[in-house]
Amino acid sequence: MDAPTKAKDALPGEGQPSEVEKRGPSTQPDMISRGQAEKLADEKHSKLDKEIARLTKANEATVQKLADAEAKEVERQRERDETAVRDADGDPVK
User: Fold this and answer.
1) 74 lies in which domain range?
2) How many domains does the chain divide into?
3) In angstroms, rounded to a whole number, what is the distance separating the alpha carbons of residues 57 and 50?
Protein backbone atom coordinates (compact mmCIF):
# COMPACT_ATOMS: atom_id res chain seq x y z
CA MET A 1 0.00 0.00 0.00
CA ASP A 2 1.95 2.94 -1.30
CA ALA A 3 -1.08 5.26 -1.33
CA PRO A 4 -1.46 7.66 1.58
CA THR A 5 -3.89 6.42 4.18
CA LYS A 6 -5.06 9.77 5.46
CA ALA A 7 -6.35 12.80 3.54
CA LYS A 8 -3.78 15.09 5.12
CA ASP A 9 -1.00 12.76 3.93
CA ALA A 10 -2.12 13.32 0.34
CA LEU A 11 -1.80 17.11 0.54
CA PRO A 12 1.45 19.06 0.27
CA GLY A 13 2.88 20.17 3.60
CA GLU A 14 1.56 23.28 5.26
CA GLY A 15 3.08 26.39 3.74
CA GLN A 16 4.42 24.54 0.70
CA PRO A 17 3.16 25.65 -2.71
CA SER A 18 1.43 23.18 -4.97
CA GLU A 19 2.89 22.26 -8.34
CA VAL A 20 0.59 24.74 -10.09
CA GLU A 21 1.66 27.55 -7.77
CA LYS A 22 5.33 26.71 -8.33
CA ARG A 23 4.98 27.05 -12.09
CA GLY A 24 3.05 30.33 -11.96
CA PRO A 25 0.49 31.51 -14.52
CA SER A 26 0.88 30.16 -18.03
CA THR A 27 0.15 33.56 -19.62
CA GLN A 28 0.63 37.11 -18.52
CA PRO A 29 -2.56 38.93 -17.47
CA ASP A 30 -3.88 41.58 -19.84
CA MET A 31 -2.71 45.04 -18.89
CA ILE A 32 -4.77 48.17 -19.45
CA SER A 33 -3.91 51.81 -18.97
CA ARG A 34 -5.21 53.94 -16.14
CA GLY A 35 -7.37 55.85 -18.63
CA GLN A 36 -8.91 52.65 -19.94
CA ALA A 37 -9.55 51.47 -16.39
CA GLU A 38 -11.24 54.76 -15.50
CA LYS A 39 -13.37 54.61 -18.65
CA LEU A 40 -14.46 51.05 -17.85
CA ALA A 41 -15.24 52.05 -14.27
CA ASP A 42 -17.28 55.05 -15.46
CA GLU A 43 -19.26 52.84 -17.85
CA LYS A 44 -19.91 50.31 -15.09
CA HIS A 45 -20.99 53.06 -12.67
CA SER A 46 -23.28 54.55 -15.32
CA LYS A 47 -24.95 51.18 -15.87
CA LEU A 48 -25.29 50.67 -12.12
CA ASP A 49 -26.75 54.16 -11.65
CA LYS A 50 -29.34 53.46 -14.35
CA GLU A 51 -30.24 50.12 -12.75
CA ILE A 52 -30.55 51.75 -9.32
CA ALA A 53 -32.84 54.43 -10.78
CA ARG A 54 -34.98 51.77 -12.49
CA LEU A 55 -35.27 49.70 -9.32
CA THR A 56 -36.05 52.78 -7.22
CA LYS A 57 -38.83 53.76 -9.62
CA ALA A 58 -40.24 50.22 -9.56
CA ASN A 59 -40.09 50.20 -5.75
CA GLU A 60 -41.93 53.53 -5.54
CA ALA A 61 -44.64 52.19 -7.86
CA THR A 62 -44.99 49.07 -5.72
CA VAL A 63 -45.24 51.14 -2.54
CA GLN A 64 -47.96 53.27 -4.15
CA LYS A 65 -49.90 50.18 -5.28
CA LEU A 66 -49.70 48.80 -1.75
CA ALA A 67 -50.95 52.08 -0.27
CA ASP A 68 -53.85 52.14 -2.76
CA ALA A 69 -54.76 48.53 -1.96
CA GLU A 70 -54.67 49.25 1.78
CA ALA A 71 -56.92 52.31 1.31
CA LYS A 72 -59.39 50.22 -0.71
CA GLU A 73 -59.38 47.52 1.98
CA VAL A 74 -60.08 50.12 4.68
CA GLU A 75 -63.01 51.42 2.62
CA ARG A 76 -64.37 47.88 2.08
CA GLN A 77 -64.10 47.14 5.80
CA ARG A 78 -65.90 50.39 6.64
CA GLU A 79 -68.72 49.43 4.24
CA ARG A 80 -68.95 45.93 5.79
CA ASP A 81 -69.09 47.45 9.27
CA GLU A 82 -71.86 49.88 8.22
CA THR A 83 -73.82 47.02 6.65
CA ALA A 84 -73.45 44.95 9.81
CA VAL A 85 -74.69 47.86 11.96
CA ARG A 86 -77.70 48.42 9.65
CA ASP A 87 -78.51 44.70 9.69
CA ALA A 88 -78.21 44.59 13.48
CA ASP A 89 -80.47 47.65 13.88
CA GLY A 90 -83.09 46.21 11.53
CA ASP A 91 -83.22 42.82 13.29
CA PRO A 92 -84.32 43.25 16.92
CA VAL A 93 -84.08 39.52 17.71
CA LYS A 94 -80.44 38.52 17.84
Assistant:
1) 35-88
2) 1
3) 11
